[in-house]
Every structure is written in structure tokens, then in C-alpha cells.
Amino acid sequence: MKNLGLFCLLLASIVLGSCNKKPKDVEVKNLAEKPVSVQCYKALYETDTLDLKVNTLKNGKVTGELVMKVLNKAKKVGKIAGEFRGDTLFVDYSFVSGLDKATYKNPMALLKKGNELILGNGKIETYLGTSYFAKGQPIDFDNVKYKFTAVECVDK
Q: Are 140 and 121 in contact (CB under 8 A)?
């Protein structure tokens, strides 16, 4: 009976220890992977400018960079990571903003129409510090501010 308890404790510690290691390995691999295609986009709305760089990886995942310069707000510089589901690109946008240099992470949905990506508006919920689009709630791609058009990529 004592050996059975020790065995269960050992098994539980191995399972819990391995749970933390898998996602980090996958993230590092995705960051090091070379993209099969790179596309750049720009969205202009009144005085706002958004620059988006989309890297498509061999496994279909998407990474990239997004810079948001919005009137009367701090410049947001960050990275995107996600994937296409049909004609919609779902990504998490991780960015640094404000004087406190805090890091934030928000979900985004971009509908691909020809050479355009349309940034949708949807109801966002947060649970345990993670934000996501509310299940069962539609994402609006018609009444939007930002429509990204394809542009030539420029290295800075």
C-alpha cells in the first residue's frame, strides 16, 4: 500500500512537470522557423496608421509584427501569432504600451478579402487574465475603422 502511494505521487509529479515544458518548446521552435511567405499591410483611418507584417510558416501558423499609431494614444508596438480559419486570420496581439511599459495581449480577427485584411470588431471576454472573442457572438467586419491594404515590405 505504501509503494502504491509513492508510485502515484511519482507519476503525478512527472505528468505535472511535463505539462509546463511542451508549450515553451513549441513557441521557441515557431520563433526560429523561417517563413514561407511574408506580406506587409498598411491601414489608414483619419490620422491613425497601422503597419502589419504577416509571416506565414510551413505548418500554416502565422507570426508577425503590428505597429499602431493612434491619435492621442501611446504608440503600440507588438507581435502577432495565430492562424487562418477559413478566410479569417485569428491572432493574439502582444504589445507594450504606455509609460509603465506594461505588456498586454489582445485577440484580433482579420477577414481576408482579395488583397485586403479587414480588422473585425467583436465582443471580448476575459477569464483568468486571458482575453478571447466571446463564443457564439458574431464578429463584425462591415462597420470597421481599419482595412489593411497590401504594400511593399520595407526593412527598417
A: yes
In this structure, how many other beta carbons lie within 10 angstroms of the beta carbon of residue 124?
13
| pLDDT tens digits for range 39-85 | 999 999 999 999 999 999 999 999 999 999 999 888 889 999 999 99
Cα(153)–Cα(39) distance, rounded to whole angstroms? 7
Coil, strand or helix at 75:
coil
β-bridge mates for residue 67, sequence order: 51, 77
Q: Report the amino acid identity of residue 71.
A: L
pTM: 0.74
User: Do β-strands 61-69 and 130-133 pair in parallel, antiparallel, or remain unpaired?
Assistant: unpaired
Three-class SS state of 131: strand
